Amino acid sequence: MTNRRVLLRNRPVGEPKPSDFEIVDAPLPEPQEGDILVRTIWLSLDPYMRGRMNDVKSYTAPVELGQPMVGGTVGEVVKSRDAAFTPGDFVLSYGGWQAYHVAKAAGARVGPFGPLKLDPQAAPISTALGILGMPGLTAYVGLYDIAQPKPGETVVVSAAAGAVGSVVGQLAKIRGCRVAGIASTKDKCEYVLKELGFDACVSHRVPDLAAVLRDACPKGIDVYFDNVGGDVLKAVLRNVNPFARIPLCGIISQYNATEMPPGPNLAPVLVNRVTIRGFLVSDHADRLPQFLADCSRWLREGKLKYREDIVQGLEKAPEALIGLLRGQNTGKMLVKVGEDPTRR
Amino acid sequence: MTNRRVLLRNRPVGEPKPSDFEIVDAPLPEPQEGDILVRTIWLSLDPYMRGRMNDVKSYTAPVELGQPMVGGTVGEVVKSRDAAFTPGDFVLSYGGWQAYHVAKAAGARVGPFGPLKLDPQAAPISTALGILGMPGLTAYVGLYDIAQPKPGETVVVSAAAGAVGSVVGQLAKIRGCRVAGIASTKDKCEYVLKELGFDACVSHRVPDLAAVLRDACPKGIDVYFDNVGGDVLKAVLRNVNPFARIPLCGIISQYNATEMPPGPNLAPVLVNRVTIRGFLVSDHADRLPQFLADCSRWLREGKLKYREDIVQGLEKAPEALIGLLRGQNTGKMLVKVGEDPTRR
Lengths: 344, 344
Fold this sequence. Notes:
The structure is a homodimer of 344-residue chains.
Chain A: E1 2-8, E2 21-27, E3 35-44, H1 48-52, E4 73-80, E5 90-93, E6 100-104, E7 116-118, H2 134-147, E8 154-158, H3 165-174, E9 178-183, H4 186-195, E10 200-203, H5 209-216, E11 221-225, H6 230-237, E12 240-248, H7 267-271, E13 275-278, H8 288-300, E14 308-312, H9 317-325, E15 332-336
Parallel strand pairs in A: 8-9, 8-11, 9-10, 11-12, 12-13, 14-15
Antiparallel strand pairs in A: 1-2, 3-4, 3-6, 3-15, 4-5, 5-7
Helix pairs in contact in A: 2-3, 2-8, 5-6
């Protein structure tokens, strides 16, 4: 039995190309004492992965050339050398782009990436990578802890049909806010409006986004949850209310840029006493229990909905990531790496 | 007796010109019940005044064409129709660019612009426009309340020799921080280092400010008190530490701009979880008592120093404001409008 892996072959310049990745078959790894061997079922694809492909200092180390791409995974324990896990257990871990991986079970700190044993009765195991996982916690922390919207305030979120944005808007509705999404296509706006229950959704592909946002947010913008940066942020800043809060979660618009583009003029930030705050979900693992309690309940109650955008087979991961960075997905982008015995 | 006034004649395009102002002699105004008539001694010039010359919505209304320019003043009561004031009292008020003005004494809310009776024994009355006035409170609130530096952290402030920046750096030293200033000329840097006791001061007129700042701040930047925006902010963002705080106090670099220039790329804000927060001193009048208590004491103890950059005569105010916006002043820019009986 071999372990199929997707390695980083070249550091992309601009948009990644399929040839920047290499698919290889390696021997199966062997778990040591305190380890588990996991068969990957689901691989999460997320925009932050583009940053790991660059050889620049960031908040975590880049992926080394010739090594597997990193990523959150849900899988099944096939061999355990730790008392806490049994073969057949489902587990969230950070296994990367490969069919099998060894995870340290013993003494590992549980963060948004696990390792965490999953109960397939409680929720579909794939949700541990989406609405009940890192993207959901990102939305929860960024909105509730960083932006702290009050009932009746207007919340805007970009990449509104994405894994994080779709949760942000629903959490804002639960809080009693008016919510406007920003997405690319008409189909995504439809999804956001009809399925997720946002109050408005506009495409950023319009000549004057600032004017369109003004119509969509007649009382101005109190919170902007920013996933994209760029021109969308500029348009939002023309519509912010005094004391608006802008959690900066991602800058997808420039992840493929070869030179850092300029940012928004900050005069509206000064005049309106706006707070822009960058945050990383990894700093907020302490909020995981409360997040899981709240969002699992809301999911059961039907107050939270989600969609998964699934590609079949690890070999498809490179082009799926390229598509994700182009904004082609709706909902949580997942690669189905192996059979999911919980889904019949 | 007439009242000399400086009116706004034209809305400037770009840098103001002397011909944008008009000097006229008007009749002396008459105080009504609850008013005081004040003879202006000191007029404060501040960068925010440039914004009031534009016909754009901001946090306060613009100066109307044909009306006197606004501004904080220290003067002497010459006629009082309010029980709380007596002729001969010295008072901080918002009299604008004129030799005399009427201020509402009764029921007026005391804010950073008064009206407030001054004790000439406690401190020179002109300090009510500078280190013990609006610029001092701006520094106090922006540094202590917004940025909240901890002892040992590195604080950087731009326009370091100006009315606000010079106080920010000294307050940071009092807090036990390492302080680096950014100013334009060698003379200003000398002043900031030798007289005000900053640990470092660099000119922004260098080919690679980011590299110069890296040398001046070997442990990175934890707090940047931003008075100028523009390229200085960009250079700072290349040197910020995780969880850095950037109170946005002013954007002098663009006050004369005819088009809004782009701002800084925000990737370092995301990666380092930086907080950028715009603030206006007028929102923080509640901090005035504590500020006055602290800063009066530090002034008496010699822990706070200040310099005044004085031009003689109201007629000089237009060119002095033009110079201020070019960064030609060192310390608090004041116009001496009339005789100061407390300075012999």
